[in-house]
Amino acid sequence: HVQLVESGGGSVQPGGSLRLSCAASGYTYGDYCMGWFRQAPGKKREGVASIWTRGSTNYADSVQGRFTISQDNAKNTLHLLLNSLKTEDTAMYYCVRSPYSDYALGDYWGQGTQVTVS
Fold it and tell me: Per-residue pLDDT tens for 20-60?
């Protein structure tokens, strides 16, 4: 069965960095669009970044230039490098798989990893 398991979250000071990972299993990894969402307490879920099967990427304006999404198809792993972190980046970060070009239409989600910037 399909599983997405995030890791790498933690607590950092403003300006710091983190690298999130999402280990995927139970399907052919390279056949889907992958992405990251985040949700802070009391706020709506926000799309952060996505990456397509051929490597094209897309970022939310709020993270453009600071975050980098990548994937290792050989290891079935999705990454998100978070640089120059701000307090407003504090949220639970979720990995998502989507069979569509719109990664908001995900069919499987991970359990999330917490990022706290303070």
Answer: 999 999 998 888 999 999 999 999 999 999 999 888 999 99
Whole-angstrom distance between the N-terminal and C-terminal Cα of the chain? 37
Q: Which of 24, 46, 29 is nearest to 37 (CA)?
A: 46
Rounded to whole angstroms, what are the CA distances from 107 to 3, 56, 95? 11, 20, 11
**Closest of 78, 83, 86, 81 to residue 35, by C-alpha:** 78
Residue 106 CB neighbours (<10 A): 22
